[in-house]
Design brief:
Blueprint (H helix, E strand, L loop, with lengths): L24 E3 L9 E11 L6 E11 L3 E3 L1 H9 L8 H16 L3 E11 L2 E8 L22
EC number: 1.7.1.13
Protein name: NADPH-dependent 7-cyano-7-deazaguanine reductase
InterPro entries: GTP-CH-I_C/QueF (IPR043133), NADPH_dep_7-cyano-7-deazaG_red (IPR050084), QueF (IPR029500), QueF_type1 (IPR016856)
Length: about 150
């Protein structure tokens, strides 16, 4: 899924859907250290595959890198490509986590998808690759259970 020509430093349109998006990776300059990188995407949008209505949520991605880091511009473009993509919350969340794992082969990754109510019910989706490294500082994702998310 990595592109041959990195997207950083050049104009790149938002891909029409995840199948046409690419994720880029860059070498981890601190591969000898255990640390957590966090990406928060507070305006994630996808389309309900049944009704065609937009769904909104917050995605939080935590990972312990190994040899590679995800390049943030490509991640933003990849996540934005879901705006016109019809998929359930569970599919979006797990597919995004799996794509990053396939690209980076991190020591550990978890993703939380915190979606606004659809039909009066919020749906939160969580996926991780296994237990985190014992020496990693893993903080709570800090997004409260639904009460207006405020």
């Amino acid at each position: 899924m990595a592109s041959k020509k990195p997207q950083l430093g050049r104009s790149v349109p938002i891909p029409p859907d995840p199948e046409h998006a690419t994720l880029d990776r860059v070498p981890n300059p601190h591969a000898d250290k255990t640390y957590v990188a966090r990406f928060t995407f507070p305006e994630f949008t996808s389309i309900c595959p049944v009704t065609g209505q937009p769904d909104f949520g917050i995605l939080m991605i935590d990972y312990v890198p190994d040899k590679w880091l995800v390049e943030s511009k490509s991640l933003k473009l990849y996540l934005q490509s879901f705006r016109n993509h019809g998929a359930f919350h569970e599919d979006c969340t797990v597919a995004i986590g799996a794509a990053i794992v396939d690209l980076l082969k991190p020591q550990w990754l978890r993703i939380g998808g915190y979606f606004n109510p659809r039909g009066g019910m919020p749906i939160d989706v969580f996926w991780q690759t296994g237990a985190p490294p014992a020496d990693a500082w893993i903080t709570d994702q800090g997004i409260p259970p639904y009460r207006g998310r405020g």
